[in-house]
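Team,

Forwarding the record for the chain on the shared tracking sheet. I've put the sequence and predicted structure together so nobody has to dig through attachments.
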Amino acid sequence: MKPYLKRSAVFLAASLVLFGVLSLLIRMDVINAYYKQILMMICINVILALSTNLIIDYTGQLTLGHSAFLAIGAYSSAFIQMKTGMPFFLALLCGSVVAAIFGFLIGLPTLRLKGDYLAITTLGFCQIVVVAIQNIDAFGGAQGLAGIPPKTTFAWVFFSMIATIAILYNIVHANQGRAMISVREDEIAAEAMGIDTTKYKIMAFTAGAFFAGFAGGLYAFLMMFIDPNSFNFLRSIDFVIYVVLGGTGGFAGCIVSTSILTLLPEVLRFLSDLRMVIYPLLLIVIMILRVKNVRVAGLLHRKPSSDGPGEGSKDHAAA
């Protein structure tokens, strides 16, 4: 069996086993309704974190407006389903496509910017979306959209997360992914090699918006109520934190950090108002420890030269 097929088979088997175990625990009420909802939020946040990771980690573009696509997907899919009675999955796809279209249209002009300018532009776009939703009566205005049918199930969010991991993994390990990484490493060199850097940045931005929109739809049908304040720029900051704490160059760290940071506020809930102080302090401690671990790992992996000070030059001279 080819290595790729073997990895895919192992991933699918592990996913099915994990789903079976969690479903059994839910059915036996070992995982009650409260913890089940937390599990579902972890799955949704993983989708959001990975979609942000595609933009930040693989193309090196800092976006602070990802929650705008979450909002667009949530409101679009919920509104379409409530007004037309469209099947749940089709409504999710419609919301995702709308978010992707906005991502493409915003990406065309903004992704020609770099660094802080792109971050500021996407942050402004996020605020514009929130204010626009507050002034659309069909979406409930500032009071929010209520009466959304509860169609999101644990199976839906779990397998949506698995599908997102599989699709994005294939993207970043294909030619497109290698082109995105070259843009991240050195955009000028990538352009010199004939790579259309703007094209691949827009591709990553649009794909990230699509998956954020899909996660937004799942979120809307899970919560049954959404309001504009749930999608402010602070949500975008959360996604960036998930990616940064998860490290670069892979999905596993991003998934683990997202799971931990989704659970952490719930673990600290018993501390009432103090958790608003403890949570950011813990984030700072985690970040400091992570940076130290990276430095230590770098020192451990740095192999000392086995040759003496002058041996290498002697061998070269002898050759």
